[in-house]
Amino acid sequence: MSRDAFCPRCGGSLVQRYVEKRERQVCSRCGRIHYKNARPCACALVIRGGRVLLVRRAIEPFYGYWDIPGGFLEAEEHPADCAVREIEEETGLHIRPTALLGIYVDTYGEDEYTLNVHYLAEVVSGEPRPASDAAELAWFAPHELPADLAFHSDYQALEDWQRAMRGEFTPMALTSENPGEYPEPGGAD
Length: 189
Ligand SMILES: [Zn+2]
Prior knowledge:
The chain is mainly β. It has two helices and eleven strands, in the order βββββββαβββαβ. A hairpin with a 5-residue loop joins strand 2 and strand 3.
């Protein structure tokens, strides 16, 4: 379990209490509520010739399963930049996000939740080669997707991609450039 046993602010022990309509961890000493949030992730469905790029995972959880490439955001990172960075690390391809496909909440491991921002993307440059968390790469047509996908959000996003290919909805255009600069966080929680 990844739940903290002690308050990171004062070191007091954490207890379960019913606060703001659900069970939460609360510090028994300073009273701080330890909110549990989903970890933000960005992924890209890289499309080339009507096929989508998937990676075979080289790490747990779901070692050996097929997955949409992506990963966890750094603190100050825009999801679109994260997708570009992660796909470059895992596949060697430099990509350009072209549209927002969808946003999916998922679980990760035993006790974590993820908030997954999925882009559609195209290849700008590079030769595909698996690296980092990926053991193998392959391009799949919509009708030949693998059955052994790692995460529920993989199924959801690939289903939405198929729906978009059939014209059932239009992925959202990316309307603004990532500013690339962020203020330093303040002192508040
Ligand atoms: Zn405390």
